[in-house]
Amino acid sequence: MPDSVAGPRTPEAETRSVGATIELEGLTKRYPGSALPAVDDVSMDFREGETVILVGPSGCGKSTLLKMINRLIEPTSGRIRIGGEDVTDMDPVRLRRKIGYAIQASGLFPHMTVAQNIALVPRMLRWPAARVRERVEEMLDLVGLDPGEFHGRYPRQLSGGQQQRVGVARALAADPPVLLMDEPFGAVDPITRDHLQDELIRLQRELHKTIVFVTHDFDEAIKLGDRIAVLRERSHIAQFDTPEAILTNPADDFVSGFVGAGAALKRLNLTRVRDVGITDYPTVSVDDPLEEIFSRLRSGGTNEVLVLDKRGRPYKWLRRGDMMRAKGSLARAGALVGDTVTQDATLRDALEAVLTDNTGRVPVTGRRGAYEGVVDVETLMNSVHELLEADRLEAREAQADLQDQRASQTHAEQEGPGGEAKA
Amino acid sequence: MNFWEYLGSRHQQILVDAYQHASVVFQCMVVATLLGVVIGVVTYRSEWAGNLATVTTATLLTIPALAMIGLLIPVVGLGVPPTVIALTLYGLLPIVRNAIVGLRGVDPSLVDAAKGIGMSRVARLARVELPLAWPPILTGIRVSTQMLMGIAAIAAYASGPGLGNLIFRGIASLGSSNALNQVLAGTLGIIVLALLFDAAYVLLGRLTIPRGIRA
Question: Where does the ABC transmembrane type-1 domain start and stop, copy by copy (chain B) (predicted)?
Answer without folding.
Answer: 18-201
